[in-house]
Amino acid sequence: MSWNPNLDPHCPTGTEIDAIETVIVPRARDLGGFEVRRALPAPKRQMVGPFIFFDQMGPAEFLTGQGIDVRPHPHIGLATVTYLYKGRIHHRDSLGTDQWIDEGAVNWMLAGRGITHSERMDGAARQAPQSLFGLQTWVALPKDAEDSPANFEHATKESLPLIEGEGKQLRLILGDAYGERAPTKTMSEMFYADAILAAGASIPMPDNHEDRGVYITAGSVEVAGQLFEAGQMMVFRPGDRVSLKAGDLGARLMLLGGETLEGPRYIWWNFVASSKERIEEAKQAWRAEDWAHGRFQLPPGDADEFIALPDR
Q: pLDDT for 104-163, tens place per residue?
């Protein structure tokens, strides 16, 4: 998830992106009984379109009284996208947003120059066992939006375009694809979609976007005669016609991509920026802990604790 301080600050800066098709096997991290699989950034790929961070959360089961508690932490230069297959998460941020996200809905948080948020499974939800399975991604902002005011949007499952037929169901989460457009306002051209395929069903990748990738969350798919299993991400060459065919057990896929940004991005902890100077400024502001007058404030209703700036 976005709060994980273990992200290597020396990840690729974009110049190492492979121009040919790339297969990414995510790195698995055990966060104390809760597993996260990170597909982006990867050694050979920093981004797919504007998507610079891609985590699979779970699946995980929590006993009564247990759940995730992601304390308040900051972001700059990105937008976070939270999408759940199973479970609920309570989002609070420094704008005053207090929003639960449920299965199939979208939380889109635009950090811009700076925002602080927390993510928890709290309150009445802890009075019974809980499940969690979902994805959290970051979208890097174009340079002209890095200093934009922070914002938050919530889109219900019912508000997202749904395309069905021929053994497939696709829900468009962000951007535009297959002649549909999602309701959330983005800062650059992109697409992000949840596709469920029956056994043997096929779906083409959108052909109106420069950079395109797919992440398999369940089942398997065949691409150009090769079979790929759950937990892999494939990135495709621009302009190629690509079709995905589900294996014998069907498949669930996340399709993503869009236009590439005007240059590489630096990423350190929860900060993304087009320059190292922006990262340093954000580090100093969070280290100062000036919640009353500084760049960052803590979320109303969740201001008793926060994650300190990492040492590295």
A: 999 999 999 999 999 999 988 899 999 999 999 999 999 999 999 999 999 999 999 999
C-beta neighbour count of 153 within 10 angstroms:
16
Residue partners of 264: CB distance under 8 A and separation at least 6: 13, 14, 15, 46, 274
Of 115, 29, 111, the C-alpha closest to 77 is 111
Question: What are 70-96's pLDDT values in tens digits?
Answer: 999 999 999 999 999 999 999 999 999
The distance of Cα 199 from the centroid of its chain, to the nearest Å, equals 27
As to burial, measured by CB atoms within 10 angstroms (0-12 exposed, 13-18 middle, 19+ buried), residue 66 is: middle
267 contacts 13 by C-beta, under 8 angstroms: no
CA distances from 39 to 33, 46, 95, 138, 195 (A): 20, 10, 30, 12, 18
